[in-house]
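fwd from M.: "can u put these together and see what the complex looks like"

so here's what she sent:
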Amino acid sequence: MADLLREAWIIAAKDLRLEFRSRTAFLSSLAFTALVLAIFNFARDPTAVSTIDLAPGILWITFCFAGLLGLNRAFALERENRALEGLLISPVSRQALYLGKMIANLVFVGLVEAIALPLFALFFNVPVLPVLGPLAGVIALATIGFVGVGTLLSAIAVSTRFAEMMLPLLMLPFLVPPITAAVQVTARLFGGRPFSEMVSWLKLLVGYDIVAVVTALLIFEFTLDE
Amino acid sequence: MSLAAAERALRRSAALMLVALALLAGVFVRALAFTPPDAIQGPAQKIFYVHAPSAWVALLSFVIVGVCSVLYLALREQRIDRLAASCAEVGVVFITGALVTGPIWGKTIWGAWWTWDARLTSTLFIWFIFFGYLVMRSAVHEPGQRARFSAVLGILGALLVPFIHVSVVWFRTLHPQPVVLKPEGPTLPGSMLATLLASFFVFTLLFVALVWQRYAQAEVADARAARQAEADDRAR
C-alpha cells in the first residue's frame, strides 16, 4: 500500500512538474473556463430568471468542460515520443500509474476550479462565502468521481483515432450521476436548505466515487499495451 | 473456423431470421386485428406490443455485453469479443426502436413527444453509451486492443448505469409503472397479455437471429481474409 502510494506520487509529481514548467495547458484551461463563465452571462435573461436558480447549473457545466479539457492532456502527453512505453518498462505497477495520473488530474482540475469559483461568485453575484466549506466538499466529491472515470477513459481515448472527440463522447454519459448530484446539492446549499435534504444525493456521490475509482484501479491495466 | 463452416452458419442464421420475421408479421396481425383496443388509451396502446419488447431486447443485449466484457478479460477468447460486438450493434437498433416508438405513444397520451422521465432518460443514456462503444470500436484498428478497450468500457457501463438510473429517478419520473412483472401479478387482460408475451418471444427470437447473423458474417469475413493471406503467401 505504502509502495503503491509512493509510486503513484512519483508519477503525479512528474506530470505536475511538466505542467508547472510549461503552464500552457493550465493557462489555456483557465482562460477557457473564464470564457465559458462570461459567455453564460449572455445565455440567460436576467429579468426573467433569477441568477441563483441558474447558478448551480452554470457552475457545473463550466467545471465539466474544464475537466474534459484537462483530462485529454494526461495521456496525450505520454503519446509524444512514445513516452508511455518508458513508463510501462519502469518498475511502477499499473495501479500506481493509474493512481498517479489520477492525482495529477485531480490537482490540475482542482486548481482550475479553485480559481474559477471566485470568478463565478464575482460574475454572477452569488454569495459563495457563507457556504464555502460545504461547497468545497461537494466540489471535491464530484471531481473525484469524474476524474476517476475520466482518467480511465482518457487512456482509451488517446489510443483511438479522433482522440479529442472520443473522450467527451465516451465520458459524458457517465458524468450524469456526479453532475446531477452536485447540481442538486449546490442548489440546496445556495438556497440555505437543511442538510437532511442533501444527504441522499451525497450518499449517491460517495457511492459513485468508490465504485468508479475501485473499478478503474482494477481494470486500468487492460487499457495499456501488453 | 473454416470458411465453409462459417458460410454454413451464416445460411442457418438467415433461415432463423426468416422464421423470426414471419412470426413477427403474425404477432403484428394478432396485435392489430385480434387483440381488443385499450378502453382508455384506444389504438395508441397498440404500440406497446413493439415498444416494450424492443426495450426488453435492448436490456438483454446490454446485459450480454456486460457479461461478455468480464469473460473476455478473464479468458481472452476472440469469439467472446465478437459476440459482445454483435450484441451491441443489434442492441443499438432495438434501443433506437424503443426510443422512437415511445415518443409516438407519448405524444397522444402525455401530449408531448419527449419528457425527461426517468426511464426515457436512462434509456437515452444507455443508447449514448452503446453508441460511444461502437464508435470507439470503429476507431481502433488492432483487434486485441479493440477487444480490451471494449471490455473495459462494457464493465464500466454495467457498473455505472445503475447510478445513472438512480440519479434520473430521483430527478423525477412519469413513465407508466409495470403492468406485467409486479408482485401482485399482471393487471393486463388475458388477450392483451397473450399478445404481449408472444411479442416478447418473437422479438427475442429476432434478436438471436440478428446477433447470430452478425456474428457469422464476422467469422466469414475473417475466414476469407485468412484464405486471402494464405493465397498471397503462396503466390510469393
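replying to her w this: The mean pLDDT of chain B is 87.
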